[in-house]
Amino acid sequence: MSQGQVPVRIMRLKRAFLWSSLGGVALGVGVALIGKMARKPALSPLVYEKIPPGCKRISLWTERFEIGVAGKPSVAHDEYLLQVTPFKVWSFLNLPSPDNKALQEGIPVYHATVIRHLEPVNGENGPEEAHGREETQIQDRFYGILSASGGPGKSPGPNLLARGGSLELRKCSVGGTSNAVETGEVHRSTGLVLNYRFEYTYAVTD
């Protein structure tokens, strides 16, 4: 072997070692990422809570969500005042059974007042330059049956709530009797349910 061939072979060995090292690093990073993805905790299922007997009103707040105000991004959250009424709905889809006394008594109808709380509009440089005061706006008032869901078609039934879920209100038409009829319209909260409070005395609302 000539002396000129030795450096060439050494250079080839160095290159092979370099590519082998880089391949090992890439493989290690890939394994680490896969391991981290595998350890990612699964979303906890919603914990549904039945509306307790004797509850006269429910105050509920949603999580904050982004919204556009006058062409500028802002943040808001909704407040729901849900007043118990004497109206009930009897649904053929929820036939009474000895195991479900609530359905034998009908599904309670609530009078809902939806209030939106708008935070001050951000300036050009973000929240640091926010100006104005928080605004409160009544969005809607209607009668409805309440339930919570983890997504479309994922509700276990009426008269249940769950933190972290969406609030659903199936709108109803009421008349001179205690019977109410569903209109087919469904109101869904813009933000997820953050918290709620059961109240056992009637409160006067505007």
Mean pLDDT: 78
Number of domains: 2
* Rg over alpha carbons: 29 Å
Give the tally of β-strands. 12
Distance between the termini: 100 Å
Q: Extract low-pLDDT stretches.
A: none
The number of distinct helices, counting runs of at least 4 residues, comes to 2
Characteristic terms for this protein:
206 residues, alpha+beta, eight-stranded antiparallel β-sheet, two-stranded antiparallel ribbon, 18% helix
Description:
The structure is a single chain. With 206 residues, this protein is an alpha+beta fold. The chain folds into 2 domains: 40 residues; 151 residues, no CATH class. The protein is 18% helix and 46% strand. The chain contains 2 helices and 12 strands. The strands form 3 sheets. Strands 2, 3, 4, 5, 8, 10, 11 and 12 form an 8-stranded antiparallel β-sheet that branches. It has a two-stranded antiparallel sheet with strand order 1-9. Strands 6-7 form a two-stranded antiparallel sheet. The chain is globular.
Give a brief outline of the structure.
The protein has 206 residues and is α+β, with helices and mostly antiparallel strands. It folds into two domains: 1-40; 49-199, no CATH class. 18% of the residues lie in helices and 46% in strands.
Secondary structure layout plus pairing:
Blueprint: H1 5-38, E1 49-50, E2 57-62, E3 65-69, E4 72-89, H2 101-104, E5 107-118, E6 121-123, E7 126-131, E8 135-149, E9 160-161, E10 166-174, E11 180-188, E12 193-199
Antiparallel strand pairs: 1-9, 2-4, 2-12, 3-4, 4-5, 5-8, 6-7, 8-10, 10-11
